[in-house]
Write a structure and sequence with these properties.
Length: 344
């Protein structure tokens, strides 16, 4: 049990907390790491705090610094992360996540010893002073804190890195601020990446992420219109909280069980067949597969080939899909032949 400052006590809300322990990669790419329950940290830690949605270049700069500090101090590294972005809760809007939480935890776990997910609702009413005393010190036993220079915390986002430094002498921890990462003059942020993905600007989003944007979904049965057109598709069920790119046709790479295949990803309402519901459909360039139903796929989005379009007939649609396939195959020359899976 960590030592608490004189006169302080463990907060009621922190008596139980989920700890994610990152184990070996699963055979199915989408399940996240196992979660066990622990009261508090046993011993001092190097701590970072944030949502880390996307685990982009800026996040990785912070996480790498956390790892370096933990190795130097020879104590565990911990990432305290919110399941959903606090700003979405504060503004009362639905989240638009770049990654499912379990995949995000697994990526964060490549850098730290422990990932501690929490619901923002559990701590949103805490003042910065109480958050430091009850969570950072009382629950997480921080010896060193590493956060981005623009870090905000506490009720109404009232606390910042200077508030953390103000408590350093009282509680005996150190604070290090990591400067923002810039790419081609743009400060890397999850908000900017979400905007780029929403607009279908995949190349720019990939540069800021340091990898391709990805979707994770389960293959479900569809109405087999693609098969009738000669281009069978796997229909994907994407969790509603996950951000989808702009409607259109994308060059994509799908990880299926232990392998991967290239293909086209369609996102849209299928206006040429009178569709209304937003769909995600994957057509693979390889042999037709009938073993995909029920599988969880990891889809890397390489680039946008065109926007969604309405065609006067199914024949016109079939011709255009053929052109999309031909163009997509040609564009693959610009992408690495040995891809890396995100989800483990």
């Amino acid at each position: 049990m960590p030592l608490l400052p004189a006169g302080s006590r463990q907060s009621a809300h922190s008596s139980w907390r989920k700890i994610v322990q990152v184990g070996p990669p699963p055979t199915n790419p989408t399940p996240g790491p196992s979660v066990v329950i622990s009261r508090v940290m046993k011993g001092e830690t190097v701590l970072t705090i944030g949502t880390f949605d996307g685990v982009h270049r800026g996040h990785r700069a912070i996480l790498e610094r956390v790892r370096e500090c933990a190795e130097a101090l020879r104590i565990p590294s911990v990432a305290y992360t919110f399941e959903l972005p606090p700003r979405a809760a504060i503004e009362g809007r639905n989240p638009r996540l770049l990654l499912p939480p379990q995949i995000r935890y697994r990526l964060i776990g490549r850098y730290v010893d422990r990932v501690v997910p929490t619901s923002f609702s559990d701590v949103r009413s805490l003042s910065p002073e109480r958050f430091i005393a009850e969570v950072i010190v009382g629950e997480l036993a921080a010896k060193a804190i590493v956060v981005g220079e623009r870090f905000k915390f506490g009720r109404g986002r009232e606390g910042d890195i200077e508030a953390l430094r103000a408590g350093a002498s009282r509680y005996g921890y150190t604070v290090e601020g990591v400067p923002p990462v810039t790419v081609r003059g743009e400060v890397v942020s999850s908000t900017l990446i979400r905007d780029l993905v929403t607009e279908g600007r995949i190349g720019e989003a990939s540069r800021l992420l340091g990898r391709f944007p990805a979707l994770f979904g389960k293959v479900i049965r569809g109405d087999r219109i693609g098969e009738m057109l000669g281009y069978p598709t796997a229909n994907l069920r994407i969790p509603p909280e996950i951000l989808l790119p702009a409607s259109g046709v994308y060059l994509a790479r799908a990880f299926i069980l232990e392998g991967w295949e290239d293909g086209l990803l369609y996102i849209g309402t299928r206006p040429s067949v009178g569709g209304k519901e937003l769909r995600c459909e994957l057509h693979l360039f390889g042999e037709v597969r009938s073993d995909l139903y029920g599988l969880d796929l990891e889809i890397h989005i390489l680039e946008r080939l065109r926007e969604d379009m309405t065609f006067p007939s199914l024949d016109h649609l079939r011709v255009q899909i053929g052109r999309d396939v031909e163009r997509g195959r040609a564009r693959l020359r610009d992408y690495p032949p040995i891809p890396e899976r995100i989800g483990g």
